[in-house]
Amino acid sequence: MILLIIVAIGCITFVCISQISNAKLVKPVKVSKQVEDFVLHVRIEQNEDGFQVLRALEYKGTKTVELLHRTPLISISIDRNNHDFTGSPVSRTMDPGDKYARDPRHFEALEKGTHTIFIHGQFYVNNELVDIEETREIVFE
Predict the structure, then answer these.
(1) Which domain of life does the protein's organism represent (predicted)?
(2) Domains of the chain
């Protein structure tokens, strides 16, 4: 009897794990949101191990500016709006038309269903705080 219960629990666990690991992002998601002279670009796409988030900040102004931010420049959180900009301060000069790309962020596949992605870019220009926030739904099947 105990062996039967252990086998049943093992089968249920296997099915649950395979449901999570077999889930795929239904379609890529693109976000472009402009605040003042800055455009936050995010692309969410499937990869071999789950999905990745590509992030960049584009400057559309007419003069060179000094951008100051803590890491990460663009924070991504899943299913909860929880951002933490506590990394080391980074300074970057941006000329008109510059794009400031960040390294891709990799995530394991999520459970099947709809999930909310919270996107938050935060930085200072001329000692003024600029916040760019966006929320999107992603679907795994």
Answers:
(1) Bacteria
(2) 2-140 (2.60.40.2360)
